[in-house]
Amino acid sequence: MNDQTPFLIAGATLADGRRTDLLVADGLIAETGTGLSSTGARRIDADGLIALPGLVDLHTHLREPGFEPSETVLTGTRAAAAGGFTAVFAMANTSPVADTAGVVEQVHRLGQDAGYAYVQPIGAVTVGLEGRHLAELGAMASSRARVRVFSDDGHCVEDPLLMRRALEYVKSFGGVIAQHAQDSRLTVEAQMNEGQVSSDLGLAGWPAVAEESIIARDVLLAEHVGSRVHICHLSTAGSVDVVRWAKARGIAVTAEVTPHHLLLTEELVRSYDPKYKVNPPLRRAEDVEALRRGLADGTIDIVATDHAPHPVEAKDCEWAAAANGMVGLESALAVVQAAVVDTGGLDWADVARVLSAAPATIGGLTGFGHELTAGSPAELTLYDPNDPHEFTAADLAGRSGNSPYLDMQLPGRVRYTFHRGQPTLADGALREEGLVANG
Amino acid sequence: MRHLLSTRDLDLADAIRLLDVAEDMATVSTREVKKLPALRGKTVVNLFFENSTRTRISFEAAAKRLSADVINFSASGSSVAKGESLKDTAQTLAAMGADAVVLRHPSSGAPQSLADSGWIDAGVINAGDGTHEHPTQALLDAFTIRRRMHGAASRGTNLSGVAVTIVGDILHSRVARSNVWLLTTLGAQVTLVAPPTLMPVNMTAWPVEVEYDLDRSLLRTPPSVLMMLRVQAERMSGDFFPNTREYSRRWGLDDERLGRLPEDTIVMHPGPMNRGLEISAAAADSARSTVREQVTNGVSVRMAALYLLLAGERLSPPTPTSRMRATT
Ligand SMILES: [Zn+2]
Fold first, then answer.
1. Is residue B165 included in any domain, yes or no?
2. pLDDT digits (tens, 9 = 90+) for A367-387
């Protein structure tokens, strides 16, 4: 059974800059304040560590069922724990697709069995992600998995009428459609961002307008039917402008950006190294700047990883044959620090908002994203922002190694992750499977 | 030279050296015995993931004239169709002891991936990758232009003062890309002419003039060299232009335009030609046309590339000429 010894986290720095001790007991933060007694508790010296509410990822590909050579719920949630995440939303593009109550309940249960993070399944919008007929949205919503976010991610819901219906239908149970915005006709065989680099490299372009035009359509649809819409992985300056305009108009739109779109640019593609191949593609430096500003001014609500594991052979090949996607859970917090904290755009309270509170709210997930006060669930992350190091394969905890950050210098490290009152990551090491609080 | 992947990587000295060695190779090709022992014992693999008999036999002739052993390996299936994988094939060739791989591949960047991969240790020559580059085609074009301009006195010369106008599907043309970098490195002034749909979306960093109207371009910048690119069948169905008749009328080298060219303008085409579409029969067969020389020169240029890749600095060059010793 699980070890229920209390923990005293001594001298942590909260997101707002205050220092406090945190007593963790019975799955809750039992007490905060300075000079708390550690009698009967295990003491963790958190001097210099930032205590954040456990991170919540609204966009994770766990690959199970169907693509277990890339990742499983167990290995993916281990990667989550290593990255400071305590809850992940599992995308629906599995095999079978998560388009029925049965599949979402299976994924949900696998998450509980694993115990490294709460797994909240996302349901497909359309049957088989085919964009033709609505999946059983209501059945998934009222299943034990309690699905509130629906997405065909990997595919865009392109048919405007179907999108309209989906936006309307999920209102009855407080759901939200998360759109992968990509006009397929404008991105036929697209290999990278369309622009100067694609012109040089002779790679078919993925133009910004293919994303921006879908976002523009969908915010107008959301306005028309009075629904909310969430935009996955915003990647262009124009998309930020469209969302900013929509928000100013009062449209209920939320948007996410990935860590890689906040840090990396298309210039990396000049190497033709498939580890930089991702969808939406890496964009120009101007786009990266606009995304950072959009995140800082609240136009973009959250950071979500789009953690997309692939087996070695999917990347050990020429560019066109390679799969799209990067793993991102383990590196997310350090990349966010490098991209938007160290550059002055966000403070740690903002980080707590964009990587925990806001994604939990958007996804309708209770019990996560709370401020670290007495009585709140013990879902938290201790992060050392002053541990510059070279990110290596040893820092990856999932099944796949397709990280674009290997051999890059990152500024900090997650030291502890607490989920359900127990560490899933302790002093930088994942805890053994028997010791995490599964069930 | 470790690999030949892109003309963008070549500086002026590299480019002139390649062209000068090609001159030496051309001399060999005019002798009764057209063979040099330079690459005896070396194995050159022509690895073609895309059909191109012309390019393959040109490389094959080049390797054989240098006494290399040649293996032709035609792999089926594009990367998309998940046919033969580049990695598996490369590892097979490594096991066979390939010293150089001449790679033609439908994916842009495949030769660079092969060179960077660690799958094989051989030198890599890019024989055309997707819509990226085709360096030996550009080298043979430059060689052909230089010979037409300077004749027997070509060695050591660059292309300054030469105005080259390239017309056609620039967007998808690896020949155009390689020529842009090589010809401008050699000092030529390059103008690209195409319908806007067949022009790359952003060319701000390209050292070229861009023009959509062929007649205006010919008037503004009378070319020393007019290079017509092939219109690929798949562009005809892709709505890049309304139909071949309209393309031909606006961007083809027809007899009327041929007649308006300056007297000494030469006409080039990388082949195979669509006669009557991008180039008229009269233009293709006129004395201005270098189409057949381009084929001959292709072998010399590819000999030079293989020689520099495999013999390079390591071996002292074989006979026949002492000049060759001086230039390599
Ligand atoms: Zn997506």
1. yes
2. 999 999 999 999 999 999 999
